[in-house]
Specification:
Structural class: mainly alpha
CATH topology of the largest domain: Tetracycline Repressor, domain 2
CATH superfamily of the largest domain: Tetracycline Repressor, domain 2
Helix content: over 70%
CATH class of the largest domain: Mainly Alpha
Strand content: under 5%
Radius of gyration: 20 Å
Number of domains: 2
Distance between the termini: 71 Å
Shape: elongated
């Protein structure tokens, strides 16, 4: 009897497609209101195929939360390659504003935050993602200090926490205020960030 071989690329592609469908469902209806039937319908697959990749909805939720952390880590590694720390952080602010303005992305972020209060497994992964972001931001700022691009009086950990609070605030604000436009906040946020990084004075 010949054993079936697994095509890793095809397996990864199908798994990713299921996660895309699940993201859409979760963003629009929430984790608890989205059913396996909803997800398989959006993905255009059978329940059997879905369960081959994910044994239950909880596994899908955890996979999505974990993938969010992977995307954050990848983004931070790319930002770390930018020579000027301030350019890297300004680009990050723009990326965050664009993401927050995306309805599905914003809704999913809020859903993950809410679920982390209820589900310890989601909370653990979300905390890991938080650590990745915090350490990445601190690394960017410390690199800027070492290169003379950031004032040596700056507390990298404190500024990283401030930036994370701003990120959380932007996503929360969008979810409750339809008139709030994240991109409109960029000029002021960039000016404030510049003041913080340079010890209180704006650099051109």
């Amino acid at each position: 009897m010949q054993m079936r071989t697994v095509n890793p690329a095809l397996h990864a592609s199908r798994r990713a497609a299921i996660m895309v469908a699940a993201r859409k469902c979760f963003a629009r209806n929430g984790f608890h209101q989205s059913s396996i039937a909803d997800i398989r319908t959006v993905a255009g697959i059978s329940s059997g195929t879905l369960f081959h990749y994910f044994p239950n909805k909880q596994a899908l939720v955890l996979a999505i939360v974990a993938s969010e952390g992977e995307q954050v880590a990848l983004c931070l590694s790319q930002l770390a390659e930018i020579a000027d720390c301030r350019d890297a952080l300004n680009l990050l602010l723009q990326l965050i504003a664009e993401l927050a303005a995306d309805g599905d992305a914003n809704a999913l972020a809020i859903e993950i935050a809410a679920e982390s209060r209820r589900d310890p497994d989601v909370r653990a992964l979300a905390a890991d993602n938080d650590t990745v972001l915090r350490e990445g931001l601190e690394g960017l700022i410390r690199a800027g200090i070492a290169r003379g691009q950031v004032s040596n009086t700056v507390d990298a950990a404190l500024v990283a926490q401030w930036l994370m609070s701003w990120i959380d605030g932007v996503f929360s604000r969008v979810s409750v205020d339809l008139a709030f436009k994240p991109m409109d906040q960029l000029p002021l946020m960039r000016q404030l960030l510049d003041m913080v990084l340079t010890g209180g004075r704006v650099m051109s």
